[in-house]
Amino acid sequence: MAIRKNRAPTLVDVAREAHVSLKTASRVLNKSANVREEKIAKIQAVMARLGYRPNELARGLKSHKSSAIGMIVANLSNPFIVNVIRAVQEAARSNGYVVIVASSGGDPDVERSEIETLVRRQIDGLVIAPAESRRDTFSDILPAGLEVVTFDQVIRAARFDSVAITNRRSAHEATQHMLGHGLRRIVAIGARPHLYTTRERVAGYREGMNHASLESRTCLLKHESLLTPEWLDKEVLRRHEADAIFPLNWICTLHVLRGLRELGKKTGRDVPLISFDDFELGELLTPGLSVVQQPSEMLGHEAARLLFERLKGGVGQHPRTVVLPAEMIIRGSCGCRQ
């Protein structure tokens, strides 16, 4: 029987053309066992000839699994986040899943709305960089059985698996490195002080300054957009008399670099600087940007590993935490010779 034009071929059509039962065709589609190799090859050839594409939505409704996971991040323009997403997608692909990515913009209300949208799409799991790390703001809207892994921002009270980096230790090491150059008025500049990453990096910086018996000089803004050249000049260079700057994320670093340029200051010569976060053009600056480089791809792979282990079962109820080491990359902006 010929397939009617303008109608997509179904699995029934495939079974009829291959002269097999619908059950056998379904077994081949789902890669089940107990089907002979020659029959598998025959059915797959018919699928290719007819242009058959399985209806994933229908399969998901029947099996109560969508073969999709959700991923929510705060900022899709962040190079660190882009690398994490890419790593999660690679891991998902190897497990037969797709990733639906959404952005919260760092707003807990938007985050809740995106989670609700993803849940309606019947995602099997969620990887999320929480917009709020002081408290759990979304567990109450998660359906029972939905596996969740957090990354970057750790919610201490929540019972989720999580992946983070050595924020405090690495900030301490970066501070010690600048102190080793004889710098004493190092100013740490951060934004959104309520975030876990900001709190940990500030703590590491202060530990480094305290160990040297020096005053901590922190400038914490509500948002990175407030870091203007005028503010940098008034608060950092004049009031704190900074002889070095330690921006605590890549957006702060960009604003600081732009501000120093507008103020006629040379990075490395006039104002040494180490950035917590790397980005693609950092090494092309003159001098190259010294950074604390986060293992973004490894972080994404670890988050995906924790999630898929949960989805496959056999993991205990206790939440697991993976902490990955960041790496100091010295290029010259800190005062070192490249």
Set down the secondary structure blueprint.
Layout: H1 11-18, H2 22-29, H3 37-50, H4 56-63, E1 68-73, H5 79-94, E2 98-103, H6 108-120, E3 125-128, E4 147-151, E5 161-165, H7 167-179, E6 186-191, H8 196-211, E7 217-221, H9 229-239, E8 244-247, H10 250-262, E9 274-276, E10 290-293, H11 296-312, E11 321-324, E12 327-329
Parallel strand pairs: 1-2, 1-3, 3-4, 4-5, 5-11, 6-7, 6-8, 9-10
Antiparallel strand pairs: 10-12
Question: What descriptive keywords fit this protein?
Answer:
12 strands; 3 domains; Rossmann fold; 41% helix; alpha/beta; 11 helices; three-stranded parallel β-sheet; single chain; 434 Repressor (Amino-terminal Domain)
Describe the main β-sheet briefly: 6 strands, parallel
Count of separate structural domains = 3
Corresponding CATH superfamily of the largest domain: Response regulator
Q: Count of helical segments?
A: 11
The topology string of helices and strands comes to: HHHHEHEHEEEHEHEHEHEEHEE
